[in-house]
Amino acid sequence: MQLIKAQIEEIGDRALAEDLGWGDVTTEALIPDDQQGVAFIVAKEQGILAGIDVAKKVFHKVDPELEIDVLLEDGAKVDSGSIITKVEGKVASILRAERVALNFLQRLSGIASETNRYVKAVEGLPVHIMDTRKTTPGLRLLEKYAVRVGGGENHRMNLGDGILIKDNHLAALRSRGLNLQEVVAKVRQNTSRQLKIEVEVKTVPEVLEATEAGADIIMLDNMSLGDIRQAVKMIRGRVLIEASGGMTLDKVRAVAETGVNFISVGALTHSARALDISLELESLSKE
């Protein structure tokens, strides 16, 4: 689950430039540059921690002399009051880095926590919880990392990471007279055979059509539980099956019990609530 150092730096630099592009006029007006202090990053609710390395990089980018003591690593379960990290050094530096560091921690921990809730909801069943490409622009690498920290798996990282023939692809090609079997044959001819071919379908008849066309994975998009059960029975293990569309915690276990192999959940990244995490300054010097 390691993040690439250069990519962390690039994303962190953009976030700091966004927040500090005009400086921190409040801190500059009020806090002496030589004032030293200690701060603690504290969880305010239960959840799964993610984003420690990014937050640490933000603090060190603002001030390489800040001493950072990481007390809990990514993947740790936190409760209200859990101390995550201790930061010691110039108070002005801590304040300048605070918001950006917390934004990353809160956002990524929220995704990891939400993912973990879905993973626990289907515990004991042979199904994989996966994310989608419905991520915050520019933050996909981090958000999909947070999904893995929460126990989920990544679907495609980008459009070059796998073949997924969606409804609009089919609409465009059917207007040119191609049926689904011809579409699958065309994509096999024009791409590497190492890539799995996934086809999105919306009805039970389309499930059989996609299977007979030679798809490796069938994505059942926004189907009812009854239709999902029928599709799984019809395919009988010939291809892998992914259920997608409108997944919620309330219904994810029922979907998993149908026998699908994967359940993709856009809400893991596009709707996860940030975990409540704060920074508290203590033991400030009087100098």
Widest beta sheet: strand line-up:
6-11-10-9-8-7
* CATH-level-4 superfamily name of the largest domain: Aldolase class I
CATH topology label of the largest domain:
TIM Barrel
Strand percentage, roughly?
15-25%
- The overall number of domains is 2
Name of the top-level CATH class of the largest domain: Alpha Beta
| CATH architecture heading of the largest domain | Alpha-Beta Barrel
Can you give a write-up of this model?
The protein is an alpha/beta fold and 287 residues long. The protein folds into two domains: 5-118 and 273-282, Quinolinate phosphoribosyl transferase, N-terminal domain (Aldehyde Oxidoreductase, domain 3, Alpha-Beta Complex); 121-270, Aldolase class I (TIM Barrel), CATH 3.20.20.70. The protein is built from eleven helices and twelve strands. The protein has helices at 5-20, 25-30, 52-62, 91-121, 140-149, 167-174, 180-190, 204-213, 225-235, 249-256, 267-270, and strands spanning 36-43, 47-48, 67-70, 77-78, 83-90, 128-130, 163-165, 197-201, 217-221, 240-244, 262-264, 277-282. It has a six-stranded parallel sheet with strand order 6-11-10-9-8-7. The protein has a four-stranded antiparallel sheet with strand order 3-5-1-12, covered by helices on one side. A two-stranded antiparallel ribbon has the order 2-4. Helix 3 packs antiparallel against helix 4, helix 7 crosses helix 8 and helix 8 (204-213) runs parallel beside helix 9 (225-235). The protein is elongated, with a radius of gyration of 23 Å.
